[in-house]
Amino acid sequence: MLRMNIKAEIEHIFPKTTQWRKTYTGWEKEEAEPLIESIGNKMWLEKRFNIQAGNKHFDDKKEKYHQSKFLEAQDLAKYPKNDWLEENIESRNKEIYNRLRGFLERH
């Protein structure tokens, strides 16, 4: 069995940033915070790629996601849109919770 030692961190797909740009999303920072901290906006990513992705926009992060060994990051690298916004986060929240519910119902 091949074992890999990957140092992973939690990546915020929509950046958790100190330089908030309301013009990009139309959100107020206070209303966006629950979305930014929700499970639909987070995933595992190798530490080095997470550092390199930083607080960049989604379209700039996709190359790092493509290089990841995590399948979820690789899938997001193929996402056809260049923005990751509220509807994407909410949709991914539902998807993750549905997968978890399905798993628990089967076991």
Write a structural description.
The chain is mainly α. The protein has six helices and two strands; from the N terminus they run βααβαααα. The protein has helices spanning 22-25, 29-36, 47-53, 58-67, 71-77, 86-106; strands spanning 8-12, 42-46. Strands 1-2 form a two-stranded antiparallel ribbon. The model has no long low-confidence stretch (mean pLDDT 89).
Descriptive tags:
single chain, 107 residues, mainly alpha, two-stranded antiparallel sheet, 6 helices, 2 strands
Topology overview:
Layout: E1 8-12, H1 22-25, H2 29-36, E2 42-46, H3 47-53, H4 58-67, H5 71-77, H6 86-106
Helix pairs in contact: 3-4, 4-5
Summarize the structure.
The chain is mainly α and 107 residues long. The protein contains six helices and two strands; from the N terminus they run βααβαααα. The protein has a two-stranded antiparallel ribbon.
The order of strands across the largest sheet is: 1-2
Shape: globular
Please estimate the helix content.
40-55%
Sheet with the most strands? 2 strands, antiparallel
